[in-house]
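Regression check, 2-deoxy-2-amino glucitol-6-phosphate case 612:
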Amino acid sequence: MCGIVGYIGDKKATPILINGLLSLEYRGYDSAGIAVIQNNEICTFKDKGRVANLQKAPELNNLTSNIGIAHTRWATHGKPSKENSHPHLDNSNNFAVVHNGIIENYNELKEFLSSKGYKFLSETDTEVIPNLIHYYYTNEIFEGDKFLQAVKVATNKLKGSYAIEVISKLHPDRIIVVRKDSPLVIGTKATENFIASDIPAILSYTKDFYLLDDYEYAVVYKDHVQFFDNTLSEHSKPVKNIEWDATSAEKNGYEDYMLKEIYEQPNAILETIGTRLKLGENCCFDDIGITKEYLQKINKIYIVACGTAMHAGLVGKVALEKLTHIPTEVDIASEFRYRDPILNEKTLCIFISQSGETADTIAALKLSKSKGAKTLAISNVVGSSITREADYSIYTHAGPEIAVASTKAYTSQIVLLIILAIYFAENLQSTNSSVLNNLKNDILDLPTKLETVLTETENIKDFAKKVYNETDMYFLGRGTDYAVSMEGSLKLKEISYIHSESYAAGELKHGPIALIENGVTVIGILTNPDLVEKTISNIQEVVSRGAKTLIITNQNITNNNFDFVIDIPETNNLISPILSIVPLQLLAYYISKYKGLDVDKPRNLAKSVTVE
Ligand code: AGP
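Current build output:
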């Protein structure tokens, strides 16, 4: 959470910093600020509220500096206020710092600094950092680069997670950056360098990036970047060329990123299928290096993730178990990491994360490795932390996902998991090839079928108009339809703030049916031909108690007791979630619009949860 940007080069820094912040607002938006070095002084501008608010400050127009750092905040320590906004300065105003992450031992550090006479102006954990740098800069005798050494000694005292940028008026030709468990990239060009929490924020300036590792320091000058490890020994680092084009990170005429991303799903699925699946050939994941011998050894698979990515895992579990017959469990990363899971070399742990930077998922991955399991990362971001930690990595190719509510990443994760399950099954010969071939055909048809589902938008919008004032909604399904109902319910909560819950349809009568009363909205997902009759019976039970119903189905439902039915194309039940989730994404979207809410930046949420 929190977004950071930096610029050093031959242009004015302020507009570049502000643009970067605007595109990073999805990471936090309760306050924003910038610091530049102008006339040998650090000038900061910061305020509570969104970047647009900061942008209005007339003083920004007078800043001609070519070096600066900036921050958009998602409050952890201290309320959203001007004082708590970043950048934070040390008491002598020599150093300015922006920080993404959490300093867990900041109280201890604050006490140490207070005992040395330092004063604190904010309630944040971050403010200890510039003061620590100042303390070591002035009190320790360093040989060589004093600035870098002071930053290093100071950051070595920090416990927690951080991506930090530091500027100093004593060294106005450089920005020092370091990270641990929080994302940070450096975009590079001949005479300017850019720093950001993620690639899209600076993608319009360059496609060449350095991806910083944990405990790695970069000293960023206008025309070159130096890299150091934690002993300050210098090393070189390859530039990575990023294929995304800048317009894919813009709205392209859509009112919101979320709507654009919902509509991008046919293409995201096509790109994710890529060359991994072709008719008449075995699926191809040979590039990731999982050997047939290892596959034969696996006796347990865990899929570990958070939120929407975990919901994608629930569908992946059904596919993996059905096609490979390997017992597969899905775990919430924040639970998995603390429950001492039983893992060994025969366990494959799959970690799914759109951003690849989710703190709990990364911690769960590290734990699995330490217990001897093999780890496979699925991410949408090339070079993200989980892909660098894992033994094996594969990518969804959904393109940048900017809206906080995940849509195209979810469907891409499911398709990739299912292709992976087919690949495993082909290698293990655990499923009849005609079953696999039929499934492959169905996967290849998904982009066209998704286009068909998207033609239902107006109908869904009509339903949204009828229900947007409701306070509670319930989602029901069985099997993979239950997995989809969980995701549909999460989408609705996230962006419409309507209370909603999802239940396995058969579980309703064991308690939750007590909540059903006249007029309450119940959404049923019915795509599994083997279970459809049973789910219909459960939905009848709520209809007879006065519920208003929306049914998403690919079955021929003759019953006309339901208020609203959205028909979607028929497909294999393992992949039907990729189609049936789309009406639910659109429903959440339009309800949020009718309520006049900020769809892309829902309250209290951030796109990338890099804190525990
Ligand atoms: C999705 O709509 C949510 N914003 C959230 O649940 C998200 O999926 C979760 O935080 C995991 O993120 P990741 O995929 O980047 O790890």
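Comparison notes: The pocket of 2-deoxy-2-amino glucitol-6-phosphate is lined by residues 306-309, 353-355, 358, 361, 404-406, 494, 608-609 (CB under 6 Å). The chain has a mean pLDDT of 93. No diff flagged against the previous build.
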